[in-house]
Automatic annotation (TrEMBL), chain A:
Residues 6-66 form the HTH tetR-type domain. It comes from the Bacteria. This is TetR/AcrR family transcriptional regulator. The keyword Iron does not apply. The lineage of its organism: Bacteria, Pseudomonadati, Bacteroidota, Flavobacteriia, Flavobacteriales. It comes from Flavobacterium azizsancarii.
TrEMBL record, chain B:
It comes from the Bacteria. This is Short subunit dehydrogenase.
Amino acid sequence: MRIRDADKEKLVIEMAIDQIVRDGFQGFSMNKLAKACSISVGTLYIYYKDKDDLIQKIGAITALKYFTSTVKNFSPEMSFEEGLWKQWENRAAFTMKYPKEVAFFEIIKHSPHSEIILDSIKEFADFRKTMTEFMENGLRNKELVPMTFEAFWSVAYGPLYTLLNLHTEGKSMGGKPFKLTKEIMKEAFSRTIKGLIP
Amino acid sequence: METNLNAIHIFKTDIKNIDPACEMRKTLDSDSNIQQWSIDCEDVDCVLRVVSDVLKPDAIIGMINDFGHECQELN
């Protein structure tokens, strides 16, 4: 009689993310994963049809976790400045708490799995709707300058992701040790918002 | 609905590739006792995964052997 073992499932997800971040999709295999988790390959195949199925299922779990935490205590009704700061806080908190998941998500984003994963998450459509609504409210309330979406995105989030990359690496230019603090984040945000408001 | 874990059968095989038009595929596809099946030809064990509430592992092994392939249950 087979019973679902939640702890084992959690371990499989954790180890799969670990291995994919370390070795990439090419170097990753179901056999290696099973060994790392001290389970039989057969057990792994109970839950996943093949390597692609596993990558897509774990990708969907990770993406959902990310989108959920991004909209925590956030509302599209917030003023543009307040809402964007909440987005910065939430995205930074997630990246700092789950650096491996973020690295995994980055690998997935640039792979053919990305579309399949996003299409499989019902909540992704809600997330996109919330973020569009937030931008439209900002435009309507004249709190945001109209611009091409990609230009908007790069200005609104570019500085944050640059700082987060430095934080994840633990060093800045010239190898100087770096740790992102709320003060530094606020400093960058205060200049960013000036580039977005009319 | 979630699949009953006890209805999932996993086998190690020597099926390195599976032609879309081959007889084995047709047989597995048309068997009403099989709800779902797949082979991971990229894996070293060429793992066959069959979902069936009815068929016992031995019956599935017999079916695969009939097509000239090795098949062994993975536990």
